[in-house]
Amino acid sequence: MTEMTEITSAVRTAETVAARLNRRYAAERRFRLLGLASIVLSAGFLVLLLGTVIAKGWTGFLQTQIAVEVAFDPQVIDPDGNRAPEVLDTADYPALVRNALAARLAPDADRGTRRDLSAMVSTMGAEQMRRMVAANPSVIGGRATLWLPASDKLDMVYKGQAPREVGADGNALSDRQLGWLAELEKTGQIRKAFNVQFFTGGDSRAPEQAGIWGAVVGSFFSLAVTLLISFPLGVATAVYLEEFAPKNRWTDLIEVNINNLAAVPSVVFGLLGLAVFLNVFHLPRSSPVAGGLVLALICLPTIIIAGRAALKAVPPSIRQAAAGLGASPLQIVAHHVLPLAMPGMLTGTILGMARALGETAPLLMIGMVAFIVDIPKSPLDPSAVLPVQIYLWAGSSERAFVEKTSAAIMVLLLFLVAMNMAAIMLRKKFERRW
Amino acid sequence: MNQFIPRGTSKISARGLNVHYGDKQALHDIDLDIPAGEVTALIGPSGCGKSTFLRCINRMNDMVDGAKVTGSLTLDGSDVYDRQLDVVQLRARVGMVFQKPNPFPKSIYDNVAYGPRIHGLARDQAELDEIVMNSLEKAGLLAEVESRLSESGTSLSGGQQQRLCIARAIAVAPEVILMDEPCSALDPIATAKVEELIDELRDNYTIVIVTHSMQQAARVSQRTAFFHLGKLIEVGGTEEIFTNPREPLTQGYITGRFG
C-alpha cells in the first residue's frame, strides 16, 4: 500500500513539473527579451546622439578657402619705402584683399559691391598677408595666389548648411554673392581644407576664426591643478581611514559624509569655490587655478571611495605576512598594501578626472564662462575649459557656431573616451589574483 | 645561526592568560610552559583557542579590533605584553607561518629578502644573497627554485609557497617559529615535506605548531597541549598524551569521539 502511494506521488511530481516547464521556459524567454530590448533601446539612443553630433559637427573640421591672386602693392603697404615694422604692421591689408577680389569677380565695382565682396572672406585673410610681409618684407611689390579662409556665411552656404537658392528668404548671402560663389566654383577657386584654425585658435566672435585650443589648454591646466591636489589628498585620506584610523563614531561620521559628498550636485561645489577661493583667498577669477581647486573638491570623494575599495581588496593575508615578519604599520602599507592597491586607486582617479573634465556648472559659478580670446599661458590666466566653451558656442546666434559646438563635443568625447580607455587598460594590466 | 639552546628550559611561559574578543572570552586562565628547542603541538577542536594562544605569542592579536589580553606571557622571562616592549622587535624574534601560504606578490628572492631588509640584517648585497640562499636551503627549497629566483613567489605550487613562507620566516633568524596549521591547505606529499622540514628545524628553533591533524601532532611534536573551549585541558609529552592521557576529554578527542 505505502509502496503504491510512493510510486503514484513520484509520477505526480514528474507530471506537475512537466506541466510547469513550459511556463517556466516562457518566463525565462520573456525576461531575456526584455533585457535585450532595453539594451537595443539604449544602444539606439547612443547611436542617435553620436549620429546627430557627428552629422552636425564633422564639417567643423573643414574650412572653406578661396584662391585669390593678391598683389602686395607697395603703395598701400609701405608708401614711404623704408620698411619700418610698425608701418608694415598697420598697413591696410583688407583693402588689398578687397582689391584682389574685385579684380577677379567685379572689375568695375562700386562701394556697395566692394563691401559685399569683402564680406566673402574672413578678416583672417588680411592677417595672413600681414604675417607674410612681417616674416619676409621682400614679398612687397610681388603677386601671389593665396588660399584665404572664407567668411562664416560663405562657409555655411558652400558646405550646404545654409540655403543657396537665388532669391530665397533669409539667405545668408546676397544674390550677387551667390553668383560669385558659382563663378569661383566653376574655375575651381574654392575648396574645403582641413581646419587648422579650429585646433589652434582661441575663442572668437567670428565663427570661422573660433578655435578650441584655448579651451583645451584651459582644461589641461585645470585638470593638472585638480590632479595635483586631489590625488595626494585622496590617497592619503583613503590610506589613513582604511589602515590607521580607529573604528569609532568619528570615523563613521567621516565615512558617511564622504559618501554623501560624492552625490552632492556639482554646482554646490561651485558656490563653495566662489565663496572660499575667490572671495576669501582672492584667487584670480576665471582662472584654471580656481577651477582646478573646485574640481579637486568634486573629485576627492570619488578618489577616496575608489581608493578605500582598492585598499580593502588587498587580502589581509598580505598584511599578516608582513606584520609577522616584524614590519611596522607604515612599512606594511608602504611596501605591500599601497603598491598592490595603486592600480585601483589610479583607475578611480582617472575616472574622477574624466568627470572633472566634463564638469560645467561649478565652473560657471567661478566665472570661467567669460569670453576669452587669448590662449592661457599659465594656470593663473583667465581661460575657458572645453565643456564651458561648448556651452558658450551653443548659446551663440551665428549659424556657423552650430557645427563648431558639435565639433567641440566630438573633441571632448574623444578625450573622455581616451581617459576611460586608459583606466580600463590600467585595470586589465595590473589585475591580480591571489 | 642561533646559539645552542639548552633543551628543556622554558622559552615561553603563560600564567593566567586570558583573551577576550569584545564580550566573548576566547582563552581562560592558561598556564603553559613551552620548552626551548622542541616542537610543541597545540591541538583541540575548532574554536578551542589554540590559534588565539599562538597569536598571543607574537602579539598578532593586536591587529584584531576589540582583542584584550590579560595575565602574563613571557618570552625568555621578559613580558611580551610589556608596554616598553616594541612589537616589531618581538616579531623579529618570533616568526610566524600562516595557515594559507601567503607569499608576497614579489619575486622569490624578494620574498625571502624582505625581512632581513626591513631589519637591516645584511650589511651589503653579498651578505643578503647569502642569507636568502641559506634560508632557502634550510627550507629545502633551494634546489627547486635556484634557477628562477626572480620569478613571482605566487607562481610556485602550494607546498612550495608554504616552504617559501618558512624560508621567509627563518631569514630573519628568529628564536621561535609559530605555525598556524601550516599544512591544512597542502596535499599529502607537500605535507610530508613540510613535516620533515619542521623536524629538521627544531635543532635551531623553538617551534609551536597548531594543527588539526592528530597524526601530524604525533609525528612532528615532542610535547602536546590539548585545548578545549578556551581552556587548557592537558599538556605533556606527545607520546604520553597520545598513549596514556590523564583527562577523559583528551582521551575522547584523540580517539575521535568528538572534534
Features:
heterodimer, A: 434 residues, mainly alpha, MetI-like fold, 2 domains, 3-stranded antiparallel sheet, 18 helices, 3 strands, 67% helix, flat, B: 259 residues, alpha/beta, 6-stranded mixed sheet, 4-stranded antiparallel sheet, 10 helices, 10 strands, disordered N terminus
Share of helix among residues of chain A?
55-70%
Summing up helix and strand content along with how strands pair, one would put the structural category of chain B as: alpha/beta
**So what's the overall shape of chain B?**
globular
String of helices and strands of chain B: EEEHEEHEHHHHEHEHEEHH
Report the structural category of chain A: mainly alpha
The CATH superfamily title of the largest domain in chain A? MetI-like
- Describe the largest sheet of chain A: 3 strands, antiparallel
Count of discrete alpha- or pi-helical segments spanning 4 or more residues of chain A: 18
Task: Sum this structure up briefly.
The complex is a heterodimer of chains A (434) and B (259). Chain A is mostly helical and 434 residues long.
List the helices and strands and how they pair.
The complex is a heterodimer of chains A (434) and B (259).
Chain A: H1 2-57, E1 62-71, H2 74-77, H3 85-90, H4 93-105, H5 111-118, H6 124-135, E2 143-149, H7 152-158, H8 175-186, E3 190-194, H9 196-200, H10 213-244, H11 249-261, H12 266-278, H13 288-312, H14 316-324, H15 329-358, H16 361-365, H17 386-394, H18 400-430
Antiparallel strand pairs in A: 1-2, 1-3
Helix pairs in contact in A: 1-18, 4-5, 4-6, 10-13, 10-15, 10-17, 12-13, 13-15, 14-15, 15-18, 17-18
Chain B: E1 10-21, E2 24-35, E3 39-43, H1 50-57, E4 67-75, E5 78-79, H2 87-93, E6 94-97, H3 108-119, H4 125-138, H5 142-145, H6 158-170, E7 176-180, H7 188-201, E8 206-210, H8 214-220, E9 223-228, E10 231-237, H9 238-243, H10 248-254
Parallel strand pairs in B: 3-8, 3-9, 6-7, 7-8
Antiparallel strand pairs in B: 1-2, 1-4, 4-5, 9-10
